[in-house]
């Protein structure tokens, strides 16, 4: 997979700056289904946050709780220091772009974009000015008087964004905003969303099941799994130090090696042992394919295993090498494409990695 690392330094919450959005103990049950398990989440001003997870993990439910469309079973939602848990969507400083956009099909682009301001009973002159500005900003001026049904998917997406942003929400909520677009358009709209976020200067929270989208857009990512947030942080920290097995496999490629911890020593099923503080029991060691090295005769590393190469694939920018371990599992190693001599299937090799490149998580 491709990890697109942000060029700007990943922002962490500005020291001392209070959270704009605070979720505390938020959960949602639908009958016997726990769509969201009790969770906490803090989102800071100007954050661009991705709620990332597979289908059915509770992302939409969580976003709707923030927007006020679903009331939580337990917990509180605070925005800008104010408890809004019992307050309806139109009274919150949030705006939501729903999956599929939810545009009004019988209205033109201009009427769609102006809808929220008309609802707020703003003077006509102000509405006209703000709509024209929003249309210009979203590059929709040429389509202003068209019916939204006569627009392409990407144009409809821009109308939905303009309709939400014109109300200047403190928090813009987006549910799978780019899922309906084809790949090329999706990339163009990612750039557009980044631009809007920068120019608008607000806080964006978006839901996606697409790790590439989360990595390329968000400065912070909350990884959701079965109703829980497994980990929250910037892309680099989540990739480098996954907190759970699930996070390790959901973001990027990972080797997952089973082991047992006893009295502060972990023994991998594949053989090696190393010191690691923690409770006794089964563990999983996570190590990225890029962190694993094939060792020369004189090289040693903190964790070493001897195995047999089972497969070598040339993938242009790297070589993917699978090595069978003594316990029967394969370890994937990514080697520089220029490596010479290339390992061959059937060859016995020693591989290893430094302790600092691995994470020990619950099995
Ligand atoms: N209105 C509802 N009534 C009953 N179950 C629901 C409702 N909305 C969501 N669910 C269930 O809650 C879980 C999480 O759904 P959802 O939040 O839509 O997940 P995601 O957006 O991550 O795909 C799923 O099991 C889903 O079937
Ligand atoms: Mg959803």
Description:
This protein has 363 residues and is an alpha+beta fold. The protein folds into 2 domains: 227 residues, P-loop containing nucleotide triphosphate hydrolases (Rossmann fold, 3-Layer(aba) Sandwich), CATH 3.40.50.300; 102 residues, OB fold (Dihydrolipoamide Acetyltransferase, E2P). 23% of the residues lie in helices and 34% in strands. The chain is built from 8 helices and 20 strands. It has a 6-stranded mixed β-sheet with strand order 6-7-8-3-9-10, sandwiched between helices. It has a 5-stranded antiparallel β-sheet with strand order 13-12-11-14-20. Strands 15-19-16-17-18 form a 5-stranded antiparallel β-sheet, with no helix packed on it. The longest helix has 18 residues. The chain is elongated and about 80 Å long. The two termini are 24 Å apart. The N terminus is likely disordered. Magnesium ion (MG) binds next to helix 1.
**Global outline:** elongated
Question: What's the SSE pattern?
Answer: EEEHEEEHHHEHEHEEHHEEEEEEEEEE
Instruction: List how many beta strands DSSP finds.
Output: 20
> How many structural units, i.e. domains?
2
- Main sheet overview: 6 strands, mixed
Question: Could you report the average pLDDT, rounded to the nearest whole number?
Answer: 92
Under CATH at level 1, the class of the largest domain stands as Alpha Beta
Rg, Å, rounded: 24 Å
What is the CATH architecture descriptor of the largest domain?
A: 3-Layer(aba) Sandwich
Low-confidence stretches: 1-10
Q: What is the helical fraction, as a range of percent?
A: 10-25%
Number of helices: 8
Q: How would you describe the oligomerization state of the chains in this entry?
A: single chain
Class derived from helix and strand content: alpha+beta
Distance from N terminus to C terminus (CA atoms, Å) equals 24 Å
CATH superfamily of the largest domain: P-loop containing nucleotide triphosphate hydrolases
User: Which kinds of small molecule does this entry bind, naming each only once?
Assistant: adenosine-5'-diphosphate, magnesium ion
Portion in beta strands: 25-35%
Taking strands numbered 1, 2, ... along the chain, how are they ordered across the largest sheet?
Answer: 6-7-8-3-9-10
CATH topology (fold) name of the largest domain: Rossmann fold
């Amino acid at each position: 997979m491709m990890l697109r690392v942000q060029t700007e330094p990943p922002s962490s919450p500005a020291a001392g700056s209070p959270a704009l959005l605070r979720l505390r103990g938020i959960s949602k049950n639908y009958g016997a289904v726990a769509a969201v398990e009790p969770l906490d989440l803090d989102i800071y001003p100007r954050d661009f946050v991705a709620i990332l997870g597979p289908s059915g993990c509770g992302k939409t439910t969580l976003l709707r709780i923030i927007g006020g469309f679903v009331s939580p079973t337990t917990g509180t939602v605070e925005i800008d220091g104010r408890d809004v848990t019992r307050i309806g969507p139109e009274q919150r400083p949030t705006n939501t772009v729903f999956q599929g956009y939810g545009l009004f099909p019988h209205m033109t682009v201009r009427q769609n974009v102006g809808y929220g301001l008309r609802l707020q009973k703003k003077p006509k002159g102000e509405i006209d000015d703000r709509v024209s500005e929003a249309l210009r900003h979203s590059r929709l001026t040429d389509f202003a008087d068209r019916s939204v049904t006569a627009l392409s998917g990407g144009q409809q997406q821009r109308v939905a964004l303009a309709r939400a942003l014109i109300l200047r929400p403190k928090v813009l909520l987006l549910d799978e905003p780019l899922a309906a677009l084809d790949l090329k358009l999706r990339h163009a709209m990612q750039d557009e969303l980044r631009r809007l976020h920068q120019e608008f200067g607000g806080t964006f929270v978006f839901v996606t099941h697409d790790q590439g989208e989360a990595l390329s857009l968000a400065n912070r990512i909350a990884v959701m799994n079965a109703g829980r947030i497994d980990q929250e942080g910037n892309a680099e920290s989540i990739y480098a130090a996954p907190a759970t097995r699930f996070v390790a496999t959901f973001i990027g490629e990972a080797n997952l090696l089973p082991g047992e911890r006893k009295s502060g020593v972990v023994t991998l099923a594949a053989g090696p042992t190393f010191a690691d503080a923690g409770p006794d029991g089964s563990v999983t060691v996570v190590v990225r394919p890029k962190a694993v090295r094939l060792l020369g005769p004189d090289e040693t590393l903190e964790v070493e295993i001897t195995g047999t190469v089972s497969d070598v694939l040339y993938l242009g920018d790297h070589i993917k090498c699978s090595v069978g371990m003594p316990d029967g599992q394969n370890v994937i190693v990514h080697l520089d494409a220029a490596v010479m001599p290339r390992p061959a299937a059937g060859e016995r090799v020693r591989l290893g990695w430094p302790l600092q490149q691995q994470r020990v998580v619950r099995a």
